[in-house]
Amino acid sequence: VLEHLQKVHGGWIASKGLDRGFHLNRDGTFVLRFPHEDGDDSGRIWTSYDAAKKTHWISVYKHELLGRYPLHQGEGEWACMSEKMMMRDTVDRMVERISEIDRKSEAGLG
């Protein structure tokens, strides 16, 4: 996830200030925090792992929960190959969703 964000969306990450709000947890999950606005929590992107469902998630909160996206789907070589494609698509959709919300907010529509 981090590699794809850096390679494909590095400029977007920097423009949103997320490059200054990175925290890597001991379990390998991470948090990217949006810079605070007027002392308020401006949001974050984070990963988590649901041990019961054996599923990795990436979630987005920006003034409200914008989405929770699965990153893991199945076992085996085929699942591993399709999982990489799924992860990339998921991250791309998440970035687009945040950008869409930001555009609406800037235009006074959100």
Question: Secondary-structure blueprint of this entry?
Answer:
Elements: H1 2-15, E1 22-24, E2 30-33, E3 44-50, E4 55-61, E5 65-70, H2 76-106
Antiparallel strand pairs: 1-2, 2-3, 3-4, 4-5
Helix pairs in contact: 1-2
What does this structure look like?
This protein is 41% helix and 25% strand. It contains 2 helices and 5 strands; from the N terminus they run αβββββα. It has helices at residues 2-15, 76-106, and strands at residues 22-24, 30-33, 44-50, 55-61, 65-70. Strands 1-2-3-4-5 form a 5-stranded antiparallel beta sheet, covered by helices on one side. α1 (2-15) runs parallel beside α2 (76-106).
Based on CA atoms alone, the radius of gyration comes out at: 15 Å
Q: Percent of residues in beta strands?
A: 15-25%
Helical content stands at 40-55%
Figure out the total of helices: 2
Main sheet, how many strands, which sense, barrel? 5 strands, antiparallel
Give the SSE string.
Answer: HEEEEEH
Arrangement of strands in the largest sheet: 1-2-3-4-5
Shape: globular
Which labels suit this protein?
110 residues, alpha+beta
Brief characterization of the structure:
With 110 residues, the chain is an alpha+beta fold. Helices cover 41% and strands 25% of the residues. The protein has a 5-stranded antiparallel sheet, with helices on one face.
